[in-house]
Amino acid sequence: MAKIVIDEERCKGCELCLAACPKHILVMSENFNKKGYHPAKQINPEECTGCAFCAMTCPDVAIEVFK
Amino acid sequence: MKKVFGRPESLTEVPFTYCPGCHHGIAHRLVAEVLDEFKVRENTIGVCPVGCSVFAYLFFNVDMICAAHGRAPATATGIKRVKPDSIVFTYQGDGDLASIGTAEIVHAANRGENITVIFINNAIYGMTGGQMAPTTLVGQVTQTSPYGRDPKTMGYPIKMAEMLSTLKRAAYISRVALNKPANIIKAKKSIKKAFQVQLDKKGFSMVEILSTCPTNWGLSPIEASKWLEENMIPYFPLGEFRTPEEVA
Predict the structure, then answer these.
(1) Looking at domain A3-66, which of 3.40.718.10, 3.40.50.2000, 3.40.1780.10, 3.30.70.20 is its CATH number?
(2) Is any Cβ of chain B less than 8 angstroms from the Cβ of A24?
(3) pLDDT for B5-17, tens place per residue?
């Protein structure tokens, strides 16, 4: 069981985490954050393995991983 | 559930001022994590460059000084000599280290100053708007090489890691990249080794980090990571060029 928490206000919508996720369960939200970016969000959270690749590639350190 | 990945203590809560997808943030995190792991945060002094990372003093939760353009290794030399038990690092881009600050970095390495240099190579000037850097690749289009870099008039990209590894007093020189998780893990190991060399008082250490500048390359962050892999890594090979065992 693993979980990620994305700090939507830190996210700049660069999509690097989408490319890094081996399970392809990250997408861009349709909502905007305060900076005007579409933040990343997770779909199908039960598939997350907690590999932390998304957090490692995030240039804004906006993702926390729990296991 | 236990937190297995989060913001390191050596970073402040201030959001980075970098463009979306810029690898500076990853490099900042790796350095901060290494400082946390060595438990040296309260005994560390960092030196910022001039360039996009000029505001690094806002982001690192350690004592920081901002040096004049290119002069970070000279500033760090002074700090380290006055406070030899502090951990001293510089964080410099390619315009800062490989262009205006070439003299400082070469002589700091040649003297074997016991400092760690984090060198971000993204093959372009970032803050000033995408001009050609000494590390710009042959044929690469920038604001000041609109027809691509022509080596006949502009020379070839300078390989700083290889150049400095010819100096006898340089203890640890490596080149890493941040384009994918596997390389990010290797980059952290290399940064850790560089700081270990300083902790062991073995001399000068530098990690050259290949990173992207999506904004000035005119690519999306994902395309920029691919461009780095396909164009930069073949010219700037990754690996360790000098290790402490070779130091006389």
Answers:
(1) 3.30.70.20
(2) no
(3) 999 999 999 999 9
Shortest distance, CA A1 to any CA of chain B (angstroms)? 8
Distance from CA of A31 to the nearest CA of B (A): 17
A-chain CB neighbours of B16 within 8 Å are 59-61
pLDDT tens sequence across B19-78 = 999 999 999 999 999 999 999 999 999 999 999 999 999 999 999 999 999 999 999 999
Contact A40/A13 with Cβ under 8 angstroms? yes
* Mean pLDDT, rounded, for B68-89: 98
Q: How far apart are CA B106 and CA B190, in angstroms?
A: 21
Q: What residue spans define the domains of chain A?
A: 3-66
In order of their start, the domains of chain B are 24-246 (3.40.50.970)
Q: Which residues of chain A have pLDDT under 50?
A: none
The predicted model gives B105-119 an average pLDDT of 98
Taking residue A7's Cβ as centre, other Cβ atoms within 10 Å add up to 16
Chain B touched by A38 (CB under 8 Å): no
What CA–CA distance (Å, rounded) separates B194 from B116? 6
A14, A15, A52 ranked by CB distance to B4: nearest: A52
Count of other CB atoms within 10 angstroms of residue B203: 20
Question: What are the residues of chain B with a beta carbon less than 8 Å away from any beta carbon of chain A?
Answer: 1-7, 11, 15-16, 18-26, 29, 180-181, 184-185, 214, 220-222, 225
Q: Chain B residue closest to A3 (CA)?
A: B1
**Which amino acid is located at B16 in the chain?**
F
- Which residues from A are below 8 Å from B20, CB to CB? 12-14, 37, 59
B238: left (phi over 0), alpha (psi -120 to 50) or beta: beta
